[in-house]
Amino acid sequence: MKTLLLTAAAALLIAPTAQAQDGLYFGAGIAAIKATSAPETPWGGYDVSGNDAGLALTLGYRFSANGNLSYGIEANLDLTGGKRMDQSCSSIGPAWCDVDSTLRLRGTFSTAVGGGDLTVSLGAVMIKGIAEDGPGFFVDATGRGASLGLAWQGKGGMPLRYDLNVDRIISDDTANYDRSLNVIGLRVSYMF
């Protein structure tokens, strides 16, 4: 993780800055998440939640449309620390224990607003982490669901982009129980 952060910092120093135009773009920054999980019936009645932070990576392609409008496709990867959620994995019910990584693939729609570009995105999300799948039985899990994002990047000056992401996991690959997972994430990225 330390090597990855040093590589991202070095890239910030040598790469040209990104402007809202046609073509490939990428970014690196930091992410902060709040995750909430709850077991489905008959276990319901409690939620576990936690906060975590990590590295945020973005790769996308933008196509121009008419005037100030553009659309594109974008992938986001958040590599978080895998911090345990409060009261999770304590054998009281099958909930998610932590979130290690989040991968989003979304379509984007952008327009010029207030001296910058406002981007709305919608698509799919895949989250990897650990889930409790029975009393004392903890498994590596992959969840899939839907993702909605809102981002703003100012024009001129430092090419910083601010993202708000809302992810809802609909299903996971564990064998025994169903559980929910909702993740709200904030990202600040330097765009190239």
Describe this entry's structure for a reader.
It is a single chain. The chain is built from one helix and eight strands, in the order H-E-E-E-E-E-E-E-E. It has 192 residues and is mainly beta. It has a single domain, classed as Porin (Beta Barrel), CATH 2.40.160. The model is unreliable at 4-20 (pLDDT under 50).
How would you concisely characterize the structure shown here?
The protein is mainly beta and 192 residues long. The protein has one helix at residues 2-14; strands at residues 23-39, 48-64, 70-80, 96-113, 116-132, 138-154, 160-172, 179-191.
Q: What distinguishing features does this structure have?
A:
single chain, mainly beta, 1 helix, 192 residues, eight-stranded antiparallel barrel, Porin, 7% helix
Total number of β-strand segments? Answer: 8
| Average pLDDT number | 86
Shape estimate: elongated
End-to-end separation:
21 Å
The proportion of residues in beta strands is over 45%
Name the helicity range: under 10%
Query: What would CATH call the architecture?
Result: Beta Barrel
Largest sheet: 8 strands, antiparallel, barrel
- The CATH class is identified as Mainly Beta
Number of helices: 1
Structural class: mainly beta
What's the number of domains?
Answer: 1
Instruction: Return the CATH topology.
Output: Porin
Sequence of secondary-structure elements: HEEEEEEEE
Could you list the spans in which at least 5 consecutive residues all have pLDDT below 50? Answer: 4-20
